[in-house]
Design brief:
This protein is mainly alpha-helical. The chain has 11 helices and 3 strands, in the order ααααααααααβββα. Helix 2 packs across helix 9 and helix 6 packs across helix 9. The longest helix is centred in the middle third of the chain and has 38 residues. The two termini are about 25 Å apart.
Length: about 230
C-alpha cells in the first residue's frame, strides 16, 4: 500500500513505530487467513491473549493512580466497564483496523471487516504486538496516547445492556424513524443456521450482525451500529 511502511497511517495514529513490522502484520491476521494461505505461519490469536493481559494491567494501574478513593470492588467493576467488548470494538473502528485486516475468503465475503468480535480481537492483538515489540514502555505510550482516550470516550456501559433499545432511543432522540432490521443472508444446514441481519435508520444502513438466531443477529447488528456511532463512523 505504501511501499516499505504499509501500515504507516496506523502507526501514526498509535504514536508508535514498530521495529518488527511482522508483529503488526500478525496482529492484523485473522486465523481464517492463515488457514487458507500457504506460508503464513502465524495469526493474531496469541497476541490477542497477551494484549488482553497487558490492557488489563495498564487499565488497572491507571485506575489505581487516578482513583485513590475507589475500593477493590469498585476498581474491578470500572476496569471491566472500560475494557468491555463494545469499547474495544470502538477502538478498532477508531484505528481503522477493519480495512487493514487479512481475512480468509469466507470471512471476507460475510462482512468480516465489520464484525464486532473480529475488530475487538484485532484491537487486543495490536496492544499485544506493541508490548512484544516495545516492551511495557511502548505499550504504556500507546495506551496513554491512543487507547485510553478511546476507551474513556465510549458510552456508559448501561447503554449497551439492551442494544436494540439503546439504538431506538438514539434514533428517537435525533428525530429519526425507528430502526428497521432485515435478514440479508442465511447460510448453513437447517440444524445449524447462521443469519446475517442489517439494521437501518431512516433508510440508511447502520450496522450488521451475525448469529445462530435472528434475535441474536439483530442484537449484534444493534451493537455494531452503536459502536459505529460511538466511534464517529459515517
Amino acid at each position: 500500500m505504501f511501499g516499505r511502511r504499509p501500515y504507516r497511517d496506523l502507526e501514526r495514529a498509535l504514536g508508535y513505530r514498530f521495529r518488527r513490522v511482522e508483529l503488526l502484520e500478525a496482529a492484523l491476521t485473522h486465523p481464517s487467513y492463515r488457514h487458507e494461505t500457504p506460508g503464513v505461519a502465524s495469526d493474531n490469536q496469541r497476541l490477542e491473549f497477551l494484549g488482553d493481559a497487558v490492557l488489563s494491567l495498564l487499565t488497572s494501574a491507571w485506575l489505581y493512580a487516578r482513583h485513590p478513593e475507589m475500593s477493590e470492588g469498585d476498581l474491578t467493576r470500572r476496569r471491566a466497564q472500560l475494557t468491555r467488548s463494545a469499547a474495544l470494538e470502538a477502538l478498532g473502528r477508531h484505528l481503522g483496523l477493519g480495512a487493514l485486516l487479512r481475512l480468509g475468503r469466507g470471512e471476507l465475503n460475510s462482512g468480516g471487516r465489520e464484525r464486532s468480535k473480529i475488530l475487538e480481537d484485532a484491537a487486543e492483538a495490536l496492544i499485544g504486538a506493541v508490548f512484544v515489540d516495545g516492551g511495557m514502555k511502548g505499550a504504556q505510550m500507546v495506551f496513554q496516547k491512543c487507547v485510553l482516550p478511546c476507551l474513556t470516550a465510549a458510552p456508559d456501559p448501561a447503554r449497551w445492556d439492551n442494544p436494540k433499545g439503546a439504538l431506538l432511543e438514539w434514533s428517537q432522540a435525533h428525530g429519526f424513524s425507528p430502526p428497521v432490521y432485515r435478514v440479508v443472508e442465511e447460510r448453513g444446514p437447517m440444524h445449524s443456521r447462521e443469519f446475517t441481519v442489517e439494521v437501518a435508520v431512516n433508510g440508511e444502513p447502520m450496522g450488521r450482525g451475525i448469529g445462530r438466531s435472528k434475535k441474536t443477529a439483530e442484537r449484534e447488528a444493534a451493537l455494531n451500529a452503536l459502536s459505529r456511532i460511538s466511534a464517529g463512523a459515517p
